[in-house]
Design brief:
Bound molecules: S-adenosylmethionine
Distance between the termini: 78 Å
Number of strands: 9
Strand order of the largest sheet: 4-3-2-5-6-9-7
CATH architecture of the largest domain: 3-Layer(aba) Sandwich
């Protein structure tokens, strides 16, 4: 990797440091926007190297802020870099980087949660799903409040092969709060195994590249940060619609310390809950006394396949929602109590 960076034909000309850019454009980090900047060039380089070779690649950086990672991406010899930044204060500093790398940078002032990445890259980069990943990478150090909903949204895009993934199995290198990174990569039987582990790993090969101590950021966040790399799998480990997988996985992990049959039960309306849950577990060949964290991907695949069959046989089943039922029950109880109280007054 070092060699490929060595032959990169492009290097940025001397520029003010990121610290100077921050001062020049008065880019005070907004705490309420969870802005923490990475100024250490060794770390920004390490993040970019962990994405793989970017020579002549098309890259989208999400949340570039003052541009530390952006510089490392440009120095890796990319063909083109798209920057999507929500906070307008950063645009002039990014424009300065763009001027230093003529014709390479496109800046979008926008929100990555709503910005459409499905027509952003040249059409010739499109690959078939079964081919090697296209020469397109997504890289970003976003606020944690954005990176988690964003990865869920992108996982759903991967399952449908739409959004940015209509170009093929685009690789992503993103930062997360260390604990979230541990959940994303957790294997069967570990304490961190959770809903996020299954949702990410049934669709992607997910690897932690390294951890960045919180003290490397300015201002310092309360937590350490994990750099996670995702490559969408050619063959998802569960071949059912994303929403169905999400429902099964969410229900199973609803009671994460209890036996898994507790979570499976809430997939079914109360009247036939016990019988149906028992049937589902038996057909899926899952021991009802395993804890949710002990279930392997194979178990989840079987559970989703069996649940899908049950939904096909009973069209009302998929729309059944335990939480709505619970909420309605609570509401009814509260209304009843209010009526009784009113009667007593
Ligand atoms: N990447 C820079 C770095 O490592 O120094 C900045 C990191 S800071 C934690 C997060 C950046 O993401 C900020 O520049 C913030 O304005 C931007 N951001 C936050 N939410 C965003 C969103 N929804 N879409 C695009 N950018 C966003």
């Amino acid at each position: 990797m070092a060699a490929s960076r060595g032959v990169a034909s492009f290097r940025l000309p001397p520029l003010p440091t990121i610290g100077e850019i921050i001062k020049l454009f008065k880019l005070r980090a907004e705490k309420q926007l969870s802005q923490n900047f990475l100024l250490d060039l060794r770390l920004t380089d390490k993040i970019v190297r962990s994405a793989g070779s970017l020579k002549d690649a098309y890259v989208c950086e999400v949340g570039p802020g003052p541009g530390g990672i952006t510089r490392a991406i440009l120095n890796a010899g990319v063909a083109e870099l798209l920057l999507v930044e929500k906070d307008p204060r950063f645009i002039p500093g990014l424009q300065m980087l763009s001027d230093a790398a003529p014709g390479k940078v496109r800046i979008v002032h926008g929100d990555i949660l709503t910005y459409q990445l499905d027509k952003t890259f040249p059409k010739h980069l499109e690959k078939n799903w079964g081919d090697d990943p296209p020469d397109i990478h997504i890289i970003g150090n976003l606020p944690f409040s954005v990176s988690t909903p964003l990865i869920i949204k992108w996982l759903e895009n991967i399952s449908r092969r739409d959004g940015p993934f209509r170009y093929g199995r685009i690789q992503m290198t993103l930062t997360f709060q260390k604990e979230v990174g541990e959940r994303l990569t957790a294997s069967t039987g570990t304490r961190q195994r959770s809903r996020l582990s299954i949702m990410a790993q049934y669709l992607c090969s997910v690897h932690k590249r390294f951890t960045i101590p919180g003290k490397a950021f300015v201002p310092k966040p309360d937590v350490d940060v994990a750099v996670i790399h995702f490559t969408p799998l050619v063959q998802p480990q569960i071949e059912q619609p994303f929403k169905l997988v999400e429902k099964v996985v969410q229900s199973v992990f609803q009671f994460r310390r209890k036996y898994c049959h507790q979570g499976v039960r809430i997939l079914f309306p109360e009247a036939r809950r016990l019988e149906k849950a028992e049937q589902m577990l038996m057909l899926a060949d899952v021991d009802p006394t395993l804890r949710p964290t002990q279930l392997s991907m194979y178990h989840f695949k079987n559970l989703c396949d069996v649940y899908r069959k049950m939904c096909d046989e009973d069209p009302d089943l998929f729309v059944y929602n335990y939480r709505h039922e619970l909420r309605e029950k609570r509401l009814k109880k509260a209304n009843f109590k209010r009526t009784v109280d009113d009667d007593l007054i």
